[in-house]
Automatic annotation (TrEMBL):
Co-factor note (free text): Binds 1 zinc ion per subunit.
NCBIfam families reported in the protein's UniProt record: 7-cyano-7-deazaguanine synthase QueC
Cofactor(s) needed: Zn(2+)
Similarity-based family: Belongs to the QueC family.
Lineage per the UniProt record: Archaea, Methanobacteriati, Methanobacteriota, Stenosarchaea group, Halobacteria
UniProt keyword terms in alphabetical order: ATP-binding, Ligase, Metal-binding, Nucleotide-binding, Zinc
SUPFAM superfamilies: Adenine nucleotide alpha hydrolases-like
Pathway connected to this protein: Purine metabolism; 7-cyano-7-deazaguanine biosynthesis
Protein's UniProt name: 7-cyano-7-deazaguanine synthase
Function, as annotated: Catalyzes the ATP-dependent conversion of 7-carboxy-7-deazaguanine (CDG) to 7-cyano-7-deazaguanine (preQ(0)).
Organism: Halomicrobium zhouii
Amino acid sequence: MTQNTRAVVLASGGMDSATAAYEAQAQGYDELFLLHTSYGQQTEAREHDCAQALAAHVEAADFLHIETSHLSEIGASSLTDQEMEVTDADMDSDEIPSSYVPFRNANLLSMAVSYAEANECSAVFIGAHSEDFAGYPDCRPAFFDAFQQVVDVGTKPATSITMEAPFVEWSKTDIAERGLELDVPYEDTWSCYRAEAPACGTCDSCAFRLRAFQELDARDPIEYAERPSYVE
């Protein structure tokens, strides 16, 4: 039986999902269907531009952009609620950060599975990693295992779609190292929670990203308002 080489990649516009797309190609998936969603996040325009750039870089079979404004209307996240402050990074905290969007990944993966089933794809890739699930409950390995069961039960009998979170046990540094090996165009990715240009350099997402590059003694190619050192 010929391997199905079609896969959906959740493309946020960030470095993790970009690396996941290149990893999917490295694993033999040569027809990528990229799904990007805008949910009222403060940097949605820049993220959309970066997701579109990724689609061009990987010569995607399709690029689907969906508005998911209900996540903004639900609120309770500093990414979508203008009344909530995007805080500076506290990389040692065990608390769920204010940037957590309630149950976001379940919403996004549901759409990705619909997209995958409609296009006869055999996998859905997401770039979640270990430093994500330290703070975000819907990035834990157990969540993806449970969601796989939902997919198996909730799709057609002939459908076979695998949830792929290849970096779920990796650090951000591991992802950056793999991405540099794969020549991922990180200059066309965006991670900042606060600004569309330049990146702030101090929010959680900027801090983890900068630390990854700093630990690899590599320069992050995007522009920052400031580049604090996050390595000891």
